[in-house]
From TrEMBL:
Record-listed E.C. numbers: 3.2.2.-
Family: Belongs to the DNA glycosylase MPG family.
Organism for this UniProt entry: Desulfurispirillum indicum (strain ATCC BAA-1389 / DSM 22839 / S5)
This protein's UniProt keywords: DNA damage, DNA repair, Hydrolase, Membrane, Transmembrane, Transmembrane helix
Protein name: Putative 3-methyladenine DNA glycosylase
Signal peptide boundaries: none
Pfam families associated with the record: Pur_DNA_glyco
A molecular-function term among this protein's GO annotations: alkylbase DNA N-glycosylase activity
GO BP: any one term: base-excision repair
Domain of life: Bacteria
Amino acid sequence: MSDDTQWTQITPPLLSCLDAVAGACFLVGKILVMERGSTRYSCRIIETEAYHGFDDPASHGYRGPTPRSQPMFEWGGRYYIYFIYGNHHMLNVVTDAAGMPSAVLIRAAFPMEGFSPSEPGHTRILNGPGKLCRHLGIDLCLNNTAIHQSPLSIWSDGYQPQNLGQGTRIGIKKGTHLPWRFADLRFRAFLSRPI
């Protein structure tokens, strides 16, 4: 693992000036860090999807704010977490200015610290948005919290993907033609789905 004293924390002002598509590209390669008690878990974000504005029919903000989607309408740099299918939490990072519903779904990450290498398939335990939330302990308690004031934070260690793949989003019924899924192809074996 790299020396985390050289890491830079990502803060809300940076994300509030990016739309969801730019934010989805930007977040690939960044590091999620979850502090749970005395244990720290870190993982590199390797796959994201953008949900952007009032023109995206797959976005929860497409028809305006609801009690569930309200965090999408806040300033960028907050978490939007929702519960789906009765058993999965989904982690999104809000981007853009207040009033513009933009968010980035974190689809997959690669384990770095805190995960047991002896677990069968430990490098694939974060290869889906529901699995990622389950293994990091992400739930609705973190919904609408600022990314720099939460036990879950986002960092940069200077890593930049050299081969960023782009494709259509998955698991949706509307806006399926939009090529707003991004992935670091160095980690192609650990993505939620091939790109």
